[in-house]
Amino acid sequence: MIKLCFYQRLAISLVAGFIIILAGFVWLSGQSQNTMQKLAEQTLHLDLATHLANDNPLLAEGVTDYAALENLFHTQMVLGPSFEFYFISPAGEVLTYSGDMADIHTMQVELAPINALLAPSPQLPIYGIDPKGIDTNKIFSVAPVNNANGLQGYLYVIIGGVEYDTVWANITSNHAIRSAFIAFIAAIVFLLFALLLLFKFFTLPLKELSNDMLKVREYEFDLDQVSIEKKAWVANSHNEVQQLGFSFNAMLDHIEKQMVVLQANDASRKQLLADISHDLRTPLANLQGYIETLSIQHEQLTPAQQKTFIQISLKNLRNLKHLIDQIFELAYLEGGHVRLQHESFSISELLHDVLAKFAIKAEQENVLLRIEMPEQHLYVKSDLEKVERVLTNLIDNAIRHTKENGEVCLEAKLNKQGSVIIAVCDNGIGIAKDELDAIFTPRYQASNTQTDQHKHVGLGLSICQQLVSKLGSQLQVESELGKGTHFYFVLNNS
């Protein structure tokens, strides 16, 4: 199947429509002209039969000699070749004709058109049967012929008989061909101009849109280097070109936003790579230094010094492993390789298990750990391991940023929608309001971050946010500087 482009469909549609309109116009014009011609001829010769019947003694006194009447009709037809003369009976039967009776195809004429024409104020044109024609109706003139006994018959005159039609067809055939040729040439010229104007009107927006697309492609979609005047395309238009233009502008806006995000992400990743490289270099350098010292001067070092060097090396090694684990975990989450294992589990049991892991650390820091659950039998359907990982990070941060004699609370309660809100709250140092939006950014550490014996590089909250997002929720934070911090997220109740 041949597929036509937009221009070809437009051209074919226009040509077909123009030809149909032209054919219809020619047909209607011919029909109208023919009707007007018949109306004029019948009006002009309406009383022809009456005058012949009244002026000729043979008809005025009643028909008795049909041979003489035939000669009279023949004489009249010689004088007027476009007329055919018939004398018909009151029942419509042809009794005599101005020519050879053998040429007549029907000997019966319907009386309804005759009566309609003889009626007062007839609606012309009125067509009657042409006895000489084959299934043809013609305009006519008619007059009743009476004698002493009443109606004897009708003088029936066909206006424009078969001979007239033959001559007229021969004359008009050449004229029709010439007129048709002239009309065809005029139509072609008009069609060319119409196509040019129509194509210009329809293709101008497409051309402008195509030029804009070529510019964007030429500069490899670098919108900073492309100078494009965005046109006001209509979004809800039924015009496909308008819809296409609007979609193109929306695509440019989307590409521009994506480029900004990609550039920001690229800069962030470069900075993150530089920071992580620095963080990796520090424990590695320390580790290398102490191990080289042990390797070179182990004979000069006392056992106590050797033990100290080994402990410092192990501490740097643990910090290095912790950092590398966090980097891999964040990359794993951002790469979308996480598989969730949804199961129904008790929130109460989970909170008590997590709390038990930090009991010793909290006691060492002199921080109170407690659980607050208005409803003890709460179950959620989620990934137990991921939820535990999030709570572990949040509690570890909360203990580290809570001062001595402070408090860290694990909360779980139902909201109005029937979902479970899980929260980790502390009354520690808090976070400044202008820093709340940035704390989930990798490598970001608040200005009042507390440190301990472990190396922290600001990836914990980023990992928590990624994990909660994978669980279909969002990690929220509320904090006030000097009064504490409240982290929470929502899970579906099972």
Automatic annotation (TrEMBL):
Gene Ontology molecular function: phosphorelay sensor kinase activity
Swiss-Prot/TrEMBL keywords: Kinase, Membrane, Phosphoprotein, Transferase, Transmembrane, Transmembrane helix, Two-component regulatory system
PROSITE patterns associated with the record: HAMP, HIS_KIN
Domain HAMP, first and last residues per copy: 200-260
Annotated ranges, domain Histidine kinase: 275-494
Compartmental location: Membrane
Catalytic activity: ATP + protein L-histidine = ADP + protein N-phospho-L-histidine
One Gene Ontology CC term in the entry: plasma membrane
Signal peptide from the UniProt entry: none
Gene3D superfamilies noted in UniProt: 1.10.287.130, 6.10.340.10, Histidine kinase-like ATPase, C-terminal domain
Main subcellular location of this protein, as a coarse class: membrane
EC numbers on record: 2.7.13.3
TM segment ranges: 6-28, 180-202
Coiled coil: none
PANTHER family recorded: HISTIDINE KINASE 1 (PTHR43711:SF1), TWO-COMPONENT HISTIDINE KINASE (PTHR43711)
Protein name: histidine kinase
